[in-house]
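Sample 3 of the quickstart, ligand dinuclear copper ion:
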Amino acid sequence: MVHFVIVGILVILMTVLTYFGLDALGLAQQMHPVAASAQAVPIDQLWHWEVMVISFLFALIVVPIIYSLVAFRQKKGELKDGLHIEGNTNLEIAWTVVPLLIVVVFAYLGAYSLGEVRRVDPNAMVINVKGQQFSWTFEYPEYGFITTELYLPVDRQVVLKMESADVIHSFWVPEFRVKQDVVPGRVTEYRITPSLEGSYKVRCAELCGTSHAYMEAPVVVVNSDTYDTWITDQIKIAEESKTPEGQGKLIATKNGCIGCHSADGTAMTGPTWFNLYGSDVKLADGSTVTADDAFIKESILEPTVKVVEGFPPVMPPYALTDEEISNLIAYIKTLK
Ligand code: CUA
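Result:
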């Protein structure tokens, strides 16, 4: 009996130590990325409960093993065989029923949390998301513009209708907790209610090619006034895009070109477009070519024919029409 009391106390002690140890590592109650969505609350809560049970089960296994090793070891001069014990119905019932109850309770909690996370707000705002190697674009169908940053108003549910142009990607904002695959040939939904203003990042969470690690886009959660101002600005930008240069910029955004080519000289996966038109470009084979219409057109349709020095030949070909290409070139010409 005294063994049971000691083991009981040690199990409780070990549970508490394990739990606070995990908490100190940021794995229990306090998760490292802040919770920035309404959906994060039930997910974090469920995780918290699970960590408590995990701490207890860990203690329940480790403590009796270590205690038995020490308390029931073969003592000096002890030469007899150990006690022969066969079966213990009560113990077997206990270790069947208790885990069963725990599993049933967690199945309920899991289903409940899933229901909370998927709760539909009929007034949710729709944004269309397109993932492609290696960029994200966001279309606001209510207003008819496309961006590369996802702006969201705080405390309003949005539903992202997501499509992939090529392979499987995965939409993941750690602060929102929810993650959803983006699958070619299918529209997947991602429902979120941002609850904390701030700047976050969507990261692709499915290995999708050489630049998978760079497939990120800013996610900005703002108050409704800032959001309205941003919408007005975007509408104005969309209006301005009716010229060839503007069309070109739109094509660059829509096709994800700007995920790899900067407009301001910033180093990215591909060569920058800043001061590109008319310049002399050094190629990987050592030759030099002038960045004129023909070179840019070829680089879009057959990107691996003339590879620019210092860049990996990872760009896929883009089947743009002649008109789209000439608009894109008109846009590139403006970047100086
Ligand atoms: Cu897209 Cu990884």
